[in-house]
Amino acid sequence: MGHDRSALGYNNSFRLGSHCRGQGTIVIHRYIFHNGHVVPVEQARLSPGQAGLLNGWGLFTTLRVFRAEPFAFERHWKRLQKDAARTRMPLPFDPAEVRSCLRELIQRNDVREGTARIYAVYNKVGFWHSSEELPEVDLLLCTAGLPSYREPVRLSLCQQSRHAASPLAGTKVTSWIFNVWTLQGAQQRGYDEALLLNERGEIAECTAANIFCAHGGRVFTPPLSSGCLEGVTRGILLDIAPATGFPVEEKTLRPEELFGADEVFITSTNRSLLGVSEVEGHKFAGAPGPITQRLEQAFSNHMIDYVSRMTTPQLQNSRKL
Residue range 284-313: average pLDDT? Predict the structure, then answer.
């Protein structure tokens, strides 16, 4: 592929997966950050009075930890801000301080290659409350090791699984049951992931990944109007792909167009790019294909360059959005 995967924190177990299907178990590390304090995970306390916790009124994002640095933090925070505005939820935190706290947590848990999550839970909303004093929004940060995935990936196809017309379509909210439930169903059928169609029969995304296809040397991905998440890895590819000679075009896609593609791949924070070998019985030989590999190489180079820039001395005190 033109680069050393071990230098990127990958290994065979990450690429091939130690589990027979889908995503490996993610175990949160010992220490977490909760409302201004780093504490052992068993000491963290959430309350029945947190209305957002009970209603799923909260936001989250998953970041890659690469060489002990929270990769693409700026993009993740920008999306959190957008989602907060769409869900009418305050996000009263300074991004530079959150980044600093996340880096402190990464060091405390001794994470060099792994993953992290930022959670914001809205407390002052809904009908059920407790009399205790709670902040308007809880901030929770945690880290974990990289999960295992198998490549190539096999996808099931799920009709009517994204409502593109919803005002909350594409938001990354903590009420994530439909995605987890759908993924579980796909894995019970022997697939690794589920490809979701919207109410118009268009391809939207997977339960935890964006979808791409290559046809005749051109690369396509569904537009945000499909109801898909504005994935961070997706956004980076849109920016860096032109330099590879394979720019990514946003295009409305239907299953039959995907079935006729030369290559199909998915992207997500923890998976980067993974080739797809099957979508509901339709096979794609040789996954990951040459275009997928070329784009993955460009993405990996981008990760290395990002961390190099973030860890140079002159940027140590200027990590702001």
Answer: 95
Give Cα separations from 198 to 86, 184, 205, 251, 260 (angstroms).
20, 19, 9, 14, 20
Q: Which of 102, 101, 110 is nearest to 29 (CA)?
A: 110
∠318-143-124 over CA atoms, to 5°?
Answer: 85
Q: Is 234 exposed, middle or buried (0-12, 13-18, 19+ CB in 10 A)?
A: buried
Encoded amino acid at 59, one letter: L
Answer whether 151's CB lies under 8 Å from 14's CB: no
- The pLDDT confidence band at residue 5, using thresholds 50, 70 and 90, is very low
Note down the domain range covering 89: 25-144
Closest residue by Cα to residue 141 from 170, 165, 114, 118: 118
pLDDT of amino acid 316 = 53
Give the Cα separation of 272 and 266 in Å (integer): 8
Determine how β-strand 272-279 pairs with β-strand 282-283.
Answer: antiparallel
Identity (one letter) of the amino acid at 133? E
125 with 31, same domain?
yes
Domain holding 30: CATH number?
3.30.470.10
The answer to whether the beta carbons of residues 261 and 286 sit under 8 Å apart is no
Mark whether 239 and 204 lie in a shared domain: yes
pLDDT in tens, 183-201: 999 999 999 999 999 999 9
* Range name among 125-134, 138-147, 245-254 with the lowest pLDDT average: 125-134
Answer yes or no: are the C-beta atoms of 31 and 39 closer than 8 Å. yes
**pLDDT tens per residue across span 112-129:** 999 999 999 999 887 777
For residue 25, the model assigns a pLDDT of 79
pTM for this predicted structure: 0.90
Mean pLDDT of 12-23: 34
- Residues 174 and 280 placed together within one structural domain of the fold: yes
